[in-house]
Amino acid sequence: MPTPISQGQLFVVSAPSGAGKTTLIRSVLSKWPDLRFSVSCTTRTPRGDEIPGKDYHFLSQEEFIQGIRRGRFLEWAVVHDAYYGTDGDIIRRWLLEEKDVLLDIDVQGARQVRCHYPFAKTIFVLPPSLDALENRLKMRDSDAPEKVARRLSAAIAEIQEAPWYDFVIVNDNREDAIADLDAILRACRCDRFHQARWLGSFLEKQRG
Question: Helix 145-159 to helix 130-138 angle, to the nearest 10 degrees?
Answer without folding.
Answer: 150
